Amino acid sequence: MLGGLLRLLAAVFSGGFLASDDHHVVVAAADQIASGVGLPSTYARSALFPGILAAIMTMTRGIGIHDPGVEMLIIRLLQAAYSLLVVYFVYRMLERSLGRESAMLGGLLVAAFFALPVTAVHQLEESVCMVPLLAGCWWWQRSEDSWHWAAASGSALGAALVLRFPLIGLVAAFVIMVLLQRVAVERKLVFLGGLVLVLVLQGYSNAVVNHQWWYSFIHRLGPMLDPQRMAVDAEGYPNSPPWQYILTLLAALIPPASVLLLAAAIKGGMRLHFLAIATVAFLVTHSLIANKQERFLLPILPLLFILIVAGLPWLAARIPPPAYRGMWWYFWIVNTVFLVVVTFSFAKKDRVEPLLVVYRRHDATGVLVAQYNQTFHVPDYYLGWPRPPLEVVTRADEVSAPTVPINYVILYSDTPEADRVFLAGALHRNLTLLRVITPSLADRLAHAINPRHNKARTAVIYTTS
Predict the structure, then answer these.
(1) Among 151, 136, 157, which residue's Cα sits nearest to residue 186?
(2) Cα-based torsion angle of the residue sequence 23, 25, 31, 33 in order, rounded to the nearest 10 degrees
(3) Is-cis flag, bond preceding 256, omega within 30?
(4) DSSP of 412-438, one letter per residue?
(5) Quick one: how far is CA 125 from the chain centroid?
(6) Would the CA dihedral through 124, 367, 74, 51 be positive or negative?
(7) C-alpha span between 169 and 285 (Å, rounded)
(8) Which residues share a beta bridge with 412?
(9) How far from each other are the two terminal CA atoms of the chain, in whole angstroms?
(10) Lateral strand order in the sheet of 367-371
């Protein structure tokens, strides 16, 4: 119930997108499919996730819903329901291994940890792949009862991999552990059959989209098999030391309680060694890659919480009961504060809402976006269909008499009045203030934490006459 409520609130109130890949890789691709344009032959990721989103978009447009904001709300609501399977699988794995009381705590952690509800409703590969990843783990446990669960486990693990190719380290470790287990050979073969089936289907998708069977494997997995390149090439993103993710986990799990919780996870790994080895493989392979971003850790958080819960009896036996209770009181109070901030914040509001404002007036003939204090890819999906012509300028000398009838100007500037006067002269039109869009609280906090990579600017919308 709590997990569903939190995800419902996040779906309703957390609009926009959290990262560039969230929108420009997934949502934009889905929009291309739904609009009949199709994916370019250079699209290197799996078409599975954007294909599912495209099907939802096609259905919403088929019943007369064309507003991009409403369309994304429906998608977020469906993802909220889908993400509850994370809570279910964590509960079932803990219930089978450690009992109902531990399962309740593990379920509570994945239901209410501040980072999970909001990321669950956005279009992040890292959060979407959690469900098949956990399903693969749970169904392998169930395959002790019936071999058909082994096929389901392999298929789920394959789906997690094609949704998020950087899971290759975890998946490889999982497969090796399955092969080394002292179980019937037939059970292992059934598991491998399920995994291979999904990979073959991905290859067929590559052949359709990219006209090359191995395309996504070469372009997404190929670079990961070159450790020297991956260790130094951060692709323009922060290049952090190998221990960065340990520091990130210590910060994310609410210090100083995080120190005790990670200690419990280490001890819990001795009880649940299968999940522990998979988790370690994930952390090691990701730590060797130069490009390190906080969201890359999302797939492993549910498994980490399982290990933490498994190690809590050890932790409770080694610290005084008042200190143990105080740790949890502190954890949940701070977590609740963070949860409120991120759940009710419109992400990238300054980029998304101006376009929605223009779309909902239903009279755009051309839109000029002047990016004078920040540059970014405009999420033109939010201009809807039919999409009006869009021009983007980053310097004043790029503005000239328009070749299309511009009737909206969206300005990002530290000197908006002076730039308004200049743009009016360059366009030979009068600019009338329509609306000012300020960044959300979450965007301002992200900017304060990392101003280099997280921008939060005010957008000013003008109409022309």
Answers:
(1) 151
(2) -160
(3) yes
(4) E-SSHHHHHHHHHHHHTS-EEEEEEEP
(5) 5
(6) negative
(7) 6
(8) 371, 459
(9) 52
(10) 390-393, 367-371, 408-412, 459-464, 431-437
Cα distances from 249 to residues 67, 246, 329, in angstroms, run: 38, 5, 19
Rounded distance between C-alpha atoms, residue 302 and residue 280, angstroms: 14
**Tokens representing 112?**
């209410």
Q: What are the tokens at 84? A: 């509850």
Burial of residue 186 (CB within 10 Å: 0-12, 13-18, 19+) is: exposed
The pLDDT mean for the chain works out to: 89
Predicted local distance difference test score (pLDDT) of residue 227: 60
Tens of pLDDT, residue by residue over 193-237, are 999 999 999 999 989 988 888 888 887 776 666 665 665 555 666
Q: What's the predicted TM-score (pTM) here? A: 0.92
Confidence of residue 7 (pLDDT cuts 50, 70, 90): very high
CB 359, CB 383: distance < 8 Å: yes
**Type of residue at 89:** F
The maximal CA–CA distance of the chain, rounded, in angstroms, is 78
Considering only CA atoms, give the Rg of the chain: 24
Residue in this structure with the two tokens 């909001």, named with its chain if needed: 118
Residue 328: how many other CB atoms lie within 10 Å: 12
Residue 69 identity: G
Write out the two tokens for 284.
């090691």
| Least confident span in 62-66, 224-228, 273-277, 368-372 | 224-228
287 against 403, higher pLDDT: 287
As a whole number of angstroms, the distance between CA 412 and CA 275 comes to: 48
CA distance 391 to 423: 13
Residue 154 structure tokens: 């392999």
What tokens were used for 240?
């952090």
Distance CA 164, CA 162 (A): 5
Each residue of 284-309: pLDDT tens digit? 988 888 777 888 899 999 999 999 99
Contact 357, 399 (CB under 8 A): no
pLDDT band at 402 (very low <50, low <70, confident <90, very high): low
